[in-house]
Amino acid sequence: MRALKIAGAAVAAVIVIAALLLIIGIPSGFLTSAIRERVERETGYQLNIAGATRIGLWPSLNVTLNDVTLEAPKDRDTSSRVTVGSVRADMTLSSVWSGHPQITELAIARPVLSVPLLRERVREPTPSSPRPPTSAGESGAHALAIDRVTVTDGAIEFSNLRDRFDTRIDGINAVASVGADRDIKVNGSARAGEHPLKFQIKATAPAPPVERQNIPVELTLEAAGLLQAPLTAKAEARLNGTAVMINGVTGTFGDGAFNGWASVDLASKPLVKLDLDFQRLDVATAQTPAGSGAQGSQGSPNTQASSEPHPWSNETIDLRGLNYVDVQARVSAAELNIGEAHLAPVAIDSALAQGVARIAFSNLGAYGGQANGQLIVDVSGGNPTYALTSDLIGVRALPLLRSVADFDKLDGKLQAKLAVRSAGSSQRAVMSNLSGTVFAVFKDGAIRGLNVVQMIRSLAASPLSGWPEAKEQATDLTQLSASFRIDKGQATTSDLNLVGPLVRVTGTGTVDLAAQTLAFQVEPKLVMTTEGQGRSSDPVGLGIPVMIDGPWADPRIYPDIAGITDNPDAAYAKLKEMGKGLFGGGGQSDQPLGGTLGETLGNLLQQGLGQSRSLPSQTQPNPPPAPQSDPPPPPSQDSQPMNDLLRQLFNR
Length: 652
Hints:
Elements: H1 2-24, E1 26-27, H2 30-43, E2 46-49, E3 53-56, E4 61-71, E5 81-91, H3 93-98, E6 102-109, E7 112-116, H4 136-142, E8 145-146, E9 148-160, E10 165-178, E11 183-192, E12 195-204, E13 214-223, E14 231-240, E15 243-253, E16 256-265, E17 271-278, E18 281-283, E19 326-333, E20 336-338, E21 341-343, E22 346-353, E23 356-366, E24 369-378, E25 385-396, H5 397-405, E26 410-423, H6 427-432, E27 435-448, H7 452-459, E28 464-465, E29 474-487, E30 490-499, E31 503-512, E32 517-526, E33 540-541, E34 546-551, E35 556-559, H8 561-566, H9 568-582, H10 596-609, H11 640-650
Helix pairs in contact: 9-10, 10-11
C-alpha cells in the first residue's frame, strides 16, 4: 500500500511538471546551435541568441527565441544589423515529423533594423568563390513554408556615426499573410517622426529562385503631413543582384494619375533613378497642412490675404539626409501645387550627388507666364547653401506675390531676372542671409485696394497708419520698375519708378526681407491730363517727399516734413514753378503763384511746416490775410488747403 502511495505521488508530480512544461515551455538550449548553423548556412549572416530558447507544446508546438541579433560576419560596422526582442514560431507537429516544417505563424516582437548611411558609393568586392546558383527543385525542397508573419513595435534606424546623424521610422506594426498560390498581402502602420503612415502591399511571388523574374506589386500609401493625398500604384518589380528594377509604374495620387519607371541600386550608398509623369502633383509645406489641397491657389482678384503676414519660421529645416542618397530624376506634371504656389505645366530635371542637388526647369508655366532657371542646394557642409538663377516672363504678379509673401496689393504682368544666393537652416536664416540682384518690371496692372490720389489728399491732414483700405478701388499703373541689390537680406533700390494714367512716383528705399518691413522715400506727382504716354505736359509734383516705412502689410505713410524745413526756400521755389506751369504758362500774372492755386499751395506748405513763416517778398506782395474768427480744424479732419488744391486740379 505504501508503495502504491509513493508511485501515485510520483505520477502526480510528473503530470504537474508536464503541465507546467506545456504552459511555460521546455528549456531547449540544445536547439540554439542547430538554429544558428542553419541560418548561417542559408543566409551567410551570423546569428547570436543571447536569451533563452524554449519549446512549447500548448496551444500548439512552438519555438521561442529571445534577444536575437543577426549581423554580417567580420563586419566592423556594428550599425548594420538586426536585433529582435523575441521570435516565436508556431508549427504543426505533423510537418515537423515529415521533415518539412510548416510554420503557421511567425511572431516577431520589437525588431530593430539598423541601416548605415554612407556619403560615398563604394564598389562591392567580387566574391572569390561565389555560391553556385540553386535550382528551382533544390530551392523548393529546402524552402520553409510560412503562412503568416506578424511584426509588433518594430523600427528602422538610419545612422551615420561620423556625422552624428540618425533618423528613425518607429511603431512598425504589420501583418503579412501568404496564400497557397504565393499571393502575399501586407497591411501595416508606422510613424515617421510626427507623421503617421499606413501602407498596404500586394504581390505574387514567383517560384524560387525569384531573381530576374517579374513580380507584380500593388502599393497603397497614406502619409498625413507628408503627402496631401493617398498614393496607389501598380508595377512589376525585378531583382537583379543588388538592384531593383521597377517597370510599368501606373497609379493615382489624389485625383491625378501618373506613370513612369524607377530603379534602386542598394549596393552601398543607394542610387535612385526615376522618370514619372503626373497629371496633378500636390506637395505639402510647413505652412500648408496636408489635405488642404491647392484649390484656388491662383485666387480670384477679389480674394484678400490676411492683413497679418506670416513671419518667417525659425524651425530647423533638416536636409542632411540628402548626403546619403544619389538621385537622377525627371518629373513632369500637367499641374504642380507646392503649398499655395501653383505651376502648370512643369518639367524638372534633377540630379543629387555627394550632397549637392541641381534642379533645372525650363518653360515652366507660372501664373499665365513662363519661368526658366536653376536651383542648387548644397548640404555637403555644416550649413546648407542655396543659389537660384531665374527668368520670369509674363507672369501674373498678384497670385505669385500672394502665395510667396502674403502680399496682395500689386497686380500686373511681371518680367524679372533673379540671381540670388543664401545660406541657413531655417526660413528666417535664409532670408536674413540672402544676397544677389533682382530686376523686376510690372506692366499694365494696378495697385489694388489703394487710391494714390486720395492717399496724397489724406496725407495733408495726418499721417497714415497702414495702406488706406479701399477694396473696391485701385490705382492703375502702366509700368512699375525697380532694380534691387540684396546684401544680408537688405534689398536696396535707387530707381523705383511708377508710371500711371494719373500719377507718377519715383523713389528710393530698402526692403528688409527678414523682418518683412519697408523704408522708402517716394515723390508722387499728379498727371494733369489723361492723354496717356503721348501727353505734352509734364506731371506736377507736390514738392513734399513721402515716407513709407514699417511692416510691408501695414506701413506708416507720412510727408517728409523734415526735408522741407531743411530748405524751405527751395520748397517755395518749387511751388512757384508749379503754379506757373499749371496756370498761365510763361505769361505774367498779377497774383503770385498763379492766383488762388498758388495761395492754396502756399497754405499747404505752411501747414506742412507747422509754423507761421511768411512767404518770401514778391514784386507785388499779397495783402495780409483777414483774421479768421473760427478756430483751426482739428488734425483728424481733412485739410482745407489740400481740398482746394484738388478741386482746382480736377475741376470739382
